[in-house]
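lol forgot to send this yesterday, sorry. struct tokens for the thing we talked abt
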């Protein structure tokens, strides 16, 4: 048994947790998971398949480690890269392609065919329009400076619903479904019974709620997972984390993840139909306990509460059901009014610190944000904000919450003239 498979099975047995071995941790491990199918464990996974007409890659990895990916690929095979298939256009999955094209040019070889869903092009176009925003979001989310790419290798072969890509004796069945993105596809290789799920599976609560990114599609995601579960795949290569081996285990993971998403969707839709507000819904909807215990459905990246918000946004719009939030006063105006009622910013700060001491971190955060909004240069308010949001970051389980809370620490520390960043986790 290889190290990759052994680690996967330890994760399934609970001997290692995804908090210890985060699914986005780029270990650089690589292992043949089926005959002629090589798996690369990066920030986002890459899969290489040998065929009689050259290599086929399902995803090419991120822009920041292209050379390392190509170097490992060449240890597996010297054959020309015949085809690249994007599971979707996220920059950690589809931006290792330039290194492949440069190699082909240097060797006077034909460039690989690049296959992707039709919406990949619109995604790349949007990324070019929103470069600054994406730099800011990813710096905040991961707690390290982001340099978003500015150039992309667009597909030359597009499809809408389904496409069979043939290379040698191998067929790669590409199926579109909306899930984490609107341009997503999953790829099945029947000759090897290998399923490349892309980010439909990431060894964590599905990334269906990311608070800083565009719309996700929980219900359609669940439908796609149920379709995959019927294939009889014996190896599942996820978008992040380790491959899964054995038809029964693969089917169970797919169906459990589908049930997790479907249950959150059904609970949210039922409350929306009962005219509940967003506030009522996000505090009422909880994952099923039997599913929340699964080792591959832990909230180490996204959070179920964020998924509920995304379902609301998709099915109901952005109005949260509270009339005063429709055309609100500014944060500064509200903060000043609350400070006036409280008898001064110092009273709000004192109360925020009381809530911090009592462990009521959400209330402490509301209070200190009102104080900072009312008095943006108040040092005691920023000192309290550093303490409160550092406590929130320390308790945050998901990468997304941790990153945003840390960004608040950094912002207030900067106001205080402090350059020491908060303690950062790997993810």
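and heres what i got for the seq, position by position
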């Amino acid at each position: 048994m290889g190290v990759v498979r052994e680690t996967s099975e330890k994760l399934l047995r609970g001997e290692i947790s995804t908090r210890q071995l985060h699914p986005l941790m780029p270990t650089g491990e690589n292992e043949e998971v089926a005959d002629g199918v090589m798996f690369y464990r990066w920030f986002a996974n890459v899969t290489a398949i040998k065929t009689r007409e050259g290599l086929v890659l399902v995803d090419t990895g991120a822009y920041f480690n292209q050379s390392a990916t190509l170097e490992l690929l060449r240890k597996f095979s010297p054959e020309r890269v015949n085809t690249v298939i994007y599971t979707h256009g996220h920059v950690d999955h589809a931006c290792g392609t330039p290194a492949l094209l440069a190699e082909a040019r240097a060797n006077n070889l034909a460039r690989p065919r690049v296959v992707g869903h039709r919406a990949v092009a619109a995604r790349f176009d949007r990324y070019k329009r929103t470069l600054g925003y994406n730099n800011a979001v990813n710096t905040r989310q991961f707690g390290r400076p982001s340099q978003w790419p500015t150039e992309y290798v667009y597909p030359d072969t597009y499809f809408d619903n389904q496409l069979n890509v043939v290379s040698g004796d191998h067929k790669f069945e590409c199926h579109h479904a909306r899930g984490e993105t609107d341009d997503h596809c999953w790829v099945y290789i029947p000759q090897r019974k290998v399923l490349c799920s892309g980010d439909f599976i990431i060894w964590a609560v599905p990334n269906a709620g990311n608070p800083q990114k565009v719309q996700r599609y929980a219900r359609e995601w669940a439908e796609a997972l149920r379709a995959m579960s019927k294939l009889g795949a014996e190896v599942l290569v996820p978008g992040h984390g380790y491959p899964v081996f054995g038809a029964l285990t693969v089917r169970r993971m797919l169906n459990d993840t589908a049930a997790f998403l479907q249950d959150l969707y059904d609970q949210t839709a039922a409350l929306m139909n009962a005219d509940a507000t967003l506030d009522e819904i996000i505090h009422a909807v909880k994952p099923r306990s039997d599913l929340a215990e699964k080792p591959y459905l832990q909230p180490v990246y996204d959070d179920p509460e964020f998924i509920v918000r995304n379902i609301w946004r998709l099915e109901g719009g952005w109005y949260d059901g509270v009339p005063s939030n429709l055309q609100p006063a500014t944060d500064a105006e509200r903060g000043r009014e609350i400070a006036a009622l409280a008898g001064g910013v110092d009273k709000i700060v004192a109360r925020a610190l009381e809530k911090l001491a009592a462990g009521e971190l959400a209330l402490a955060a509301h209070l200190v944000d009102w104080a900072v909004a009312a008095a943006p240069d108040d040092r005691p308010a920023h000192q309290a904000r550093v303490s409160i949001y550092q406590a929130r970051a320390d308790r945050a389980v998901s990468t997304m919450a941790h990153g945003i809370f840390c960004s608040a620490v950094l912002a207030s520390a900067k106001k205080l003239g402090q350059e020491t960043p908060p303690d950062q986790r790997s993810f």
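The longest strand covers residues 170-176. anyway ping me if u want another try
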